[in-house]
Amino acid sequence: MPRKKKDSKEKKESQLIQSAKGVRDLLPEEQPWWRRVREVSEEIADFYNFHRIDTPILERAELFERGVGAGTDIVEKEMYFVKAGKDRLVLRPEGTAPTLRAYLEHGLSSMGQPVKLYYTGSMFRHEQPQAGRYREHHQVGFEILGGEPDPLYDAQAILIGLRLLESLRLKKLVVRLNSIGCRTCRPPYRKKLVDYYRRFEGKLCKDCKRRINANPLRLLDCKNEDCVALKARAPIMMDHLCSSCRNHFKGVLEYLDEVTLSYTLDPYLVRGLDYYNRTVVEFYVEDLNIALGGGGRYDYLGELVSGRRTDLPAVGFSLGMERIIEAMKGQAVGGRGRSKPRVFLIQIGAEAKRKALSLIEKFREANIKVIESLGRGSLKAQLRIADREGVDLALLFGQREVFEGTVIIRDMKNGSQETVPLEKIVDEMKRRL
Ligand code: AMP
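Above: inputs. Below: predicted complex with adenosine monophosphate.
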């Protein structure tokens, strides 16, 4: 075969076993961190009385076009459309709009006022992959839906987000807060902002030239050097809040002070999604310049999603699980491994091997975790593995023991051995462990 053709065939073949760009496998060695994040999230959810919800990965594109907003990066350029049939379906890019859709669809308001829901799951965004940015990432989200737009709930959502991160033993956490106003005070502010930036339009980056029309608040969020310099003199929302938004924000801060939660006011914090109003929040670790997560109040999302006038106050947050895990590793915080087995079953000979599975079942019924290496035949090889696994006890089960109805218990620390009748082995192990 000509070399070129051979090379391209080899390339094609090696691609067959490669994951797609920007997505990755979470291998067994990574799982202890994932397990810790999931379990701690569940513990926090349980404590604060949040119910779990799982929504489909597939949603109608319109849900996000209306909810997240047409001028946002997510909707404009990052959604994954699924080609099948006539429906315009996408892989969900975020979890708040689907949660709210499910709440409306199933009349979940009957569960309480407000209803507290949480989720964990994959989100998909067609972004340029780079450190901390994947095309499939995972979020854990908490949403408080319905009831009153009481600032107490904003404070509680922020508190829960912080407690979750603290419970993961992350240190140097920073909470950034802002208020982005409401339908009354934001439009005149937005006009002022646009007027200011129009004067410097030539200096803006390509994205901001687009944002000035599509999503002007995001101008404040740009990381481009020239744009950052311009924002120093830009008008800020905090100076333009209407009296009810100002009081609401004051309420949030007072409740946070009451629980001595420290926060930084960040007048440039706007968040990337359109559905927020009033309180917006982001969580950081001090020396990392990338948000672990964020959220805020989204009282208009119900209306945007349903197309009807809906009075549905809501507030919540979501955290990126990949970013949390990176931060944990950066701070040398470990994961949560599987519980370690303390017993190794060594079987020697065909008869013992045949009976090994049912012996293991006896231990399962007694909730004693047993590890084995059923593929190995020699005592030496199995003892070596038992040693490597660091078990306390090994059970030796050979031809003779099967015949006599016994098992030998070997103490792996001092090598002492004792023969025990098979029917008493589980009780004996319970006594020893
Ligand atoms: P957002 O819905 O954009 O506010 O994202 C919430 C959190 O999800 C962010 O703060 C990140 O921690 C995480 N996140 C968002 N996009 C990505 C991505 N492409 N890759 C990894 N994590 C992400």
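The radius of gyration is 29 Å.
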